[in-house]
Prior knowledge:
Elements: H1 9-30, H2 35-62, H3 68-91, H4 103-124, H5 137-156, H6 172-187, H7 192-198, H8 200-206
The structure holds fe (ii) ion (2 copies).
Amino acid sequence: MIPVRVGNSILDHDHAELSCLLEDLHALWINRCGLRALLAGLIRFEDALCAHFAIEEAILGGCGYPGLAHHKGQHRAFLGEVATFRKALAEGNHPEDGRPLHGFDIASRLSDLLYAHELVEDSSYIPALTVLPDVPEDVIRQRLSPLVEEATQLKTAPQPVLHAADAPALTPQATHALTRLTREMAGGGLKPEQVAADFLPYWVEQTPLSC
Ligand SMILES: [Fe+2]
Ligand SMILES: [Fe+2]
């Protein structure tokens, strides 16, 4: 599917990756790679989707998007559907009619869901993204530096200490968002300048004191 661009480089990067992960899922089915591979592919998609939603919600919260509560509800419903597929796939059954679950069913249904969500729900917040919080540059630099440090550590050590300075104040969802950003920086998918420009102003606006 064609990822929808919303004009924020972090979110556009995520949308492109989610599309790629669904294409991978289709490919796993077409190439008859088996249930375990299909399940692993679905879990990769679910993990990326969950982290994307956490990042998106942090950004929307930081720009004061009025439709945030509704948007969060759509995210939870989407994740619920993915979890249902994951469980059904793990058991090898279709949750509704008892016929064997087909890899094609999953990849197609998730593509439809993702495309509809990006086209309708995500496109609705585009105007709100133009309201960039006014955060001093030194504050952004201060918040960026531990993330870059952690990304650097990730290149050499698989399990660095996670956001040590912020850890006590982080919710699991925030941890998920920051972990994804640092991993993407470590892997070269995102540049620190992108995180500084398109994530941190919204994040700092939401979490001004301790994280
Ligand atoms: Fe969304
Ligand atoms: Fe999105």
